[in-house]
Design goal:
The chain has 186 residues and is mainly alpha-helical. It is built from 10 helices and no strands.
Length: 186
């Protein structure tokens, strides 16, 4: 195994297995309450509104120039210009390295571009800054699953369910990963 990949995976594993005592980059006071609602509500409309509010907070850097770059990068993604989007998200990160959503969005673009190791590194940074980032955790599970690291992919999706119990695709993915892991052990 590539030592760089092993180190990244080991660090990511710590985020999944141990409580994180890091304060998130996105320190908006509303986030704690929104995450409690995300965990406690059974109302689909409340859950959708809550998740939307979390994404709005995460996406708002508080700086117009950064928000503009984020919008340009999002448009580039929509137009299939993934290299351009990655470059724009890199500019966001260079200018505002403590903005977790810049890291998360670049991780997503890198995932789309099949740059899984680079995506994992960005996910690691996203989770350092915002340990509850359910989008990054979902991406982590997807990448680990594609790398056939089934046990850690399962941990990622289990962590996702702790944060966002309404994550509808997490339980089926866990079951599928368990089936794949069982095939491996035969």
């Amino acid at each position: 195994m590539n030592p760089k990949i092993f180190v990244v995976q080991a660090i990511l594993g710590m985020f999944l297995c141990f409580p994180v005592a890091v304060f998130p980059d996105q320190t908006d006071q509303r986030l704690d309450e929104l995450f409690l609602t995300l965990q406690d509500s059974n109302s689909e409309s409340v859950l959708l509104e809550t998740e939307s509010s979390i994404w709005e907070i995460w996406f708002d850097s508080g700086k117009d120039d950064i928000d503009n770059l984020m919008e340009q990068a999002g448009e580039a993604v929509q137009n299939g210009q993934l290299a351009k989007a990655e470059s724009l998200y890199s500019q966001v990160i260079d200018r505002l390295p403590n903005f977790s959503e810049g890291w998360n969005r670049r991780a997503t673009v890198r995932f789309y571009r099949n740059k899984y190791d680079d995506s994992l590194a960005d996910i690691e940074q996203t989770l350092r800054l915002e340990p509850r980032h359910f989008g990054a955790i979902w991406g982590l599970g997807m990448i680990l699953g594609s790398k056939q690291d089934y046990s850690r992919a399962i941990l990622a999706f289990e962590r996702l369910l702790e944060i966002k119990p309404s994550a509808g695709d997490a339980k089926p993915r866990i079951e599928l990963l368990k089936q794949e892991m069982a095939k491996q052990s035969v």
